[in-house]
């Protein structure tokens, strides 16, 4: 399939990219979600703004107890970062199970979060770790807490004229991400991320609903700490009260069951 014709821009700075953004233009990072959508003509932007080579957007560094990750950092850079593994292992684990090596070498964290596929891996880890998404637009920069970022199917709190510049991930004592991959696409049929910090455990799911979400029922059941009993009781509440996705591969009942199984696996991994 061939996409419709488009103009191509390659800015060398974030400011230049913001100036080029318009209703008819789209940012291009790794291209591993946008280009397939363009080839299927689900998306037909008149211009692409290639941010893939903007050096100021590609880094992983420690910043006052937080791991700061530039938007065009690839999945492979994240999975192989010792800093990410030591402080936010759920994120490194999520990166390591995305697609295949080719996808991980080109795809970026900013592109994945902006795309907000309901079956993407990062959103669960970003929510459980309590990350912040830093964005910049014509009116300056702002930081969006993960809890406010994922709104609905392919819909985030990002404005059309904003660019994700950085993801800030606070260090967790322990964290883990496990998923049941779709056998063909490798996307998460169900993915569960858990993170503990300061005695509290956060639990988030991807693949289960229209958007990734924190599961307050599971988190409440863990308020007394992590034990074999509390993990079993908490996992049994996974996805309670949630409207759950269903498709020909995994119906609602099966997905709910997988949410419970993978909550238990993820919690056992940090217990
Ligand atoms: C075969 C295959 C298998 C895959 N399997 C998985 C999987 O198992 N798990 C998973 O999570 N994902 C999977 N993916 C998706 C992959 O992770 C993509 O890399 C990712 O979703 C998009 O990142 P990208 O850098 O390629 O973004 P692009 O495709 O370049 O862009 C995606 C969208 O984000 C916007 N965008 C990009 N960067 C920014 C930014 N900095 N600020 C604002 N908007 C921005 C673009 O305008 C576009 O709308 C798979 C993809 C393929 C092709």
In short:
With 271 residues, the protein is an alpha+beta fold.
Which SSEs are present, and which pair or pack?
Layout: E1 7-9, H1 14-20, E2 25-28, H2 34-39, E3 47-50, E4 60-62, E5 66-70, H3 75-79, H4 82-87, H5 89-96, H6 101-106, H7 109-115, H8 122-128, E6 132-137, E7 140-145, H9 146-149, E8 150-152, E9 155-156, E10 163-170, E11 174-181, E12 188-197, E13 200-206, E14 213-214, H10 216-220, H11 228-235, H12 252-270
Parallel strand pairs: 1-3, 2-3
Antiparallel strand pairs: 4-5, 5-10, 6-7, 6-10, 8-9, 11-12, 12-13, 13-14
Helix pairs in contact: 11-12
The structure holds flavin-adenine dinucleotide (FAD).
Give the termini separation: 48 Å
What proportion strand?
A: 25-35%
Count of spatially separate domains: 3
The CATH topology of the largest domain is given as Uridine Diphospho-n-acetylenolpyruvylglucosamine Reductase, domain 3
**Uncertain residue segments:** none
CATH architecture descriptor name of the largest domain: 2-Layer Sandwich
- Main β-sheet, in a few words? 5 strands, antiparallel
Bound molecules: flavin-adenine dinucleotide
How many strands?
Answer: 14
Shape: globular
How are the strands of the largest sheet arranged? 4-5-10-6-7
How helical, in percent, are the residues? 25-40%
Which class best fits the helix and strand makeup? alpha+beta
What pattern of helices and strands is seen along the backbone?
Answer: EHEHEEEHHHHHHEEHEEEEEEEHHH
Helical stretch tally: 12
* Name of the level-1 CATH class of the largest domain: Alpha Beta
Rg (C-alpha, Å): 18 Å
User: Average pLDDT value?
Assistant: 97
